[in-house]
Amino acid sequence: MNTSGNESKEPRSVTLLLHCPLRLGLAASLTQFIYAHGRLLYHDQYVDPENDDHYYTRLRWDVSSFAMTDEEMAERLRLLIGTGPETEWSLHYSDEVLRMAVFVSKDPWCLYDILARRESGEWKVELPLIVSNHPDLEPVARRFGVTFRAFSVTKENKSDVEREQLQLLQSSRVDFVVLARYMQILTGGFVRAYPNRIINIHHAFLPAFPGARPYHSARERGVKMIGATSHYVTETLDAGPIIEQDVQRVSHRHATKDLIRFGRDLEKVVLSRAIWSHLRRKIIVHKGRTVVFD
Amino acid sequence: MNTSGNESKEPRSVTLLLHCPLRLGLAASLTQFIYAHGRLLYHDQYVDPENDDHYYTRLRWDVSSFAMTDEEMAERLRLLIGTGPETEWSLHYSDEVLRMAVFVSKDPWCLYDILARRESGEWKVELPLIVSNHPDLEPVARRFGVTFRAFSVTKENKSDVEREQLQLLQSSRVDFVVLARYMQILTGGFVRAYPNRIINIHHAFLPAFPGARPYHSARERGVKMIGATSHYVTETLDAGPIIEQDVQRVSHRHATKDLIRFGRDLEKVVLSRAIWSHLRRKIIVHKGRTVVFD
Amino acid sequence: MNTSGNESKEPRSVTLLLHCPLRLGLAASLTQFIYAHGRLLYHDQYVDPENDDHYYTRLRWDVSSFAMTDEEMAERLRLLIGTGPETEWSLHYSDEVLRMAVFVSKDPWCLYDILARRESGEWKVELPLIVSNHPDLEPVARRFGVTFRAFSVTKENKSDVEREQLQLLQSSRVDFVVLARYMQILTGGFVRAYPNRIINIHHAFLPAFPGARPYHSARERGVKMIGATSHYVTETLDAGPIIEQDVQRVSHRHATKDLIRFGRDLEKVVLSRAIWSHLRRKIIVHKGRTVVFD
Amino acid sequence: MNTSGNESKEPRSVTLLLHCPLRLGLAASLTQFIYAHGRLLYHDQYVDPENDDHYYTRLRWDVSSFAMTDEEMAERLRLLIGTGPETEWSLHYSDEVLRMAVFVSKDPWCLYDILARRESGEWKVELPLIVSNHPDLEPVARRFGVTFRAFSVTKENKSDVEREQLQLLQSSRVDFVVLARYMQILTGGFVRAYPNRIINIHHAFLPAFPGARPYHSARERGVKMIGATSHYVTETLDAGPIIEQDVQRVSHRHATKDLIRFGRDLEKVVLSRAIWSHLRRKIIVHKGRTVVFD
Fold this sequence. Notes:
The structure is a homotetramer of 294-residue chains.
Chain A: E1 13-21, H1 26-37, E2 39-48, E3 54-62, H2 70-81, E4 88-93, E5 99-104, H3 109-119, E6 126-132, H4 138-143, E7 148-150, H5 158-171, E8 176-179, H6 188-193, E9 198-202, H7 214-221, E10 225-232, E11 242-249, H8 256-279, E12 283-286, E13 289-292
Parallel strand pairs in A: 5-6, 5-8, 6-7, 8-9
Antiparallel strand pairs in A: 1-3, 1-4, 2-3, 9-10, 10-11, 12-13
């Protein structure tokens, strides 16, 4: 029902995400190609002076009246961009709706938040599947009519469960995974199957307090602010590229349960901003860091 | 399922909210009375040096093994506190669950957030009724099994509608009302029926940008931060006692639709913090301002 | 002594600030011209979709080995940019050090902060003159070896004083003026002499609490955050284009004197960020708003 | 010249800082004793439910017309408070002005900020001594008329230098030490001489990025916010009780030099808030954490 941030009524567009070593004339070539055939809707770029002037850009343009097929356009871009070293790019069409799986355990707040945003039209995303290692949140999934699959995970069956989960993701044609307070550590095999396509929310201001029970650690250490961090999952725990972070001021008056209460809101907002940036194709990952365009 | 912030397993307790002119020995008398019969669970107080040393306090104590009835306890407190000028106090028992009505129009985000918090047990509150001036959000109410009543409001029938709404609130034994993006201005008659018991969320950092379309005004003015404000409703529009505010940094890059998008998260978090403080009996209103205990 | 943010060791560069209606190929022409003769150091641009796709850009490039004079370069840019409606641009050379006058009354914190930043080399700026309507801060100026001129301002002599101040600014070849807690309202005549070149710090989150004694008003209204706003001065009080804002959370526990204490730090940081952006030629003013590049 | 936050015109007062296991009637006894002889100016208390209901309180009262000597009053308090386990308390008279030494290396911003606050009367503190391991900031000290002592520190002479510095602190009757970007690690011997009386500013959001070059590490890790932390120095590096923290949002667009620039303002504000709380006797340290009263 809400349509802000919703492109459904807009003409068909395509988003180019590109990074490569800075090259004279590339931006001009790209924009001239676009202007020659259509209308530029978004153009942002960034040069990293601390990384050999590496170049990052995001362009979005109207393709509703482009006088060529998607394949021809991609081919033309391939020629323009070339195939130099450290060059990566991708095209994303506005009529391709991403398919997301959400992994949860027992905590409901991030899941409710995700379901509400999708249901209200705030996000354009398909949600074919909720996966959990506990049955507790099945009623929530059912309330929103989403398939829920619970797996009982033990030390012994973990690799079998992950294999089954991966098959499920494939058969559900899932594009990316959101760990919405999923209290299991994924193995390297699982993570490698979805590179830069698994988004986690960690309930601390990373790199402070990685691992388990960060609010207890924060209280124990006596910090004056707590935080939350959303990041892409890599094979090293809580060390993946950070997408978004936020904090809230606390004081000695706040017990651990207060930190947990504040943290719920931090977690859901920080995770949702990350998902939004992922859905809107705002993120380039390079050398363990993210460029997140506005 | 979540139990942080949930008192359900705790012994029965009572909360005293009191404000009066500062008086020697009052705090000592109160705490001694409590300690003589039970266990003090919370004690905070505040003296306002800019308001003739007016005294504000919140005490919560275990009454599960108090050797007197609630009536006797209230009578003893009445004697201790006395009946001086500008003295107000109230007692709130932990087994009384407040009943809340939510008023909405077409915007779903605050409503979803409220429903999710109640459903997940984050809040202990009854929600017998959702009222709207549009039918749009009825499916949301139905999904959570809450009664939804739509009223078509016109200039002509406004007072009739409000009368009907007030009757509905009474018959549903509603204790307080939350305006969760309700796009109607309530008349003085309605407001007077629920003094300091109607909580509104305004989508701006009051007193900046009162009234309609604050995000458009914020963009027009070129502010570098946007905000949201929850407050008790009084007869003067957007001028009631402020309960909670928060802001988010923006820049020239953010169009009005971005401000609206950021604002949704600000609104729901700020409103929910206010409702939480109200539910937990953390708020004293005095002279148009709030004292909100931690 | 500190050299971060100091360009003194960098080769000579020029900054172009430009805004105009969006025009196909302009960005490409500009960057190609620059690349043909030198090295691009900074390039940012912004298109305002809510303002007829108006285009704003900031480019900075190395001119140390440009094979043409500054005049020739400016002429070439003039031809590239053209003279359409609503088109404004300016060039700023890194070896031109701006000259700043600071106006104060009795409050020292912003003045000390400015003097320290200049003295430590954090800013590259000349400070030939401090003007005041009170003699109180003369010792501070003297301590840092800066000329201090006090004017006794009354209702009657105000226009005479302003005329004298303007002459002083001219004879000191002042480029821009900073009102660092100057408790006088400048007349339209004075303001028009330095369009978008007078920076004020207002001790509130504008448009909330314009005018006098905003901390008292904030306390009276019971807001839960206080703020500060730096803006260019226009003929309407506290309504000029906002450059920077920031806030700090407060509670009922904070008396007016606490708000004033917190506010001092907000004021000096917010004002200094605005001065930095002005000095580094990061700001374009258009239609009462600012574009502030990173 | 500024008098907010300045108690110089107020009657003589005393501040009691006390922590001990919660005890029935202690608060009442203390306030009754005070009210019996004078006027209570400040009263805050906190019970830590996660630490066996340990009790922390700060009381400040007018002693200008107390009908007993300071010694008699202290003796009466000693009897009231008793000598149970884990009980610590101290009395601080408003006419005792603390003496602070500031240790610096080459970075001037925190030093300037401290000097300006003292000079303008924002803080009531004596500053007999600035110590450095480099001569660079001597002109700054001289400008403000403060004694400056430089020590050339090497691996070999470190313990000799520290012994000399400690003698200097003693002969200057220094009460507490501020490490205002002092780039040396103090030995345990030095730290033990000033327990909870050495305040450091670390340029990161601890416990993230302890040790050297935190802004470089923050950029390398790709965090979306940077921070600063002031804490009491203990024998373990960057692990002492945290007094104050703050953060600022950054993005991929900000190079390390931008983080350093933002960090300067964070550092000086966070350090100054900690010094203010220390000067105003707002801090109780217990079990590696601080209670910082408002």
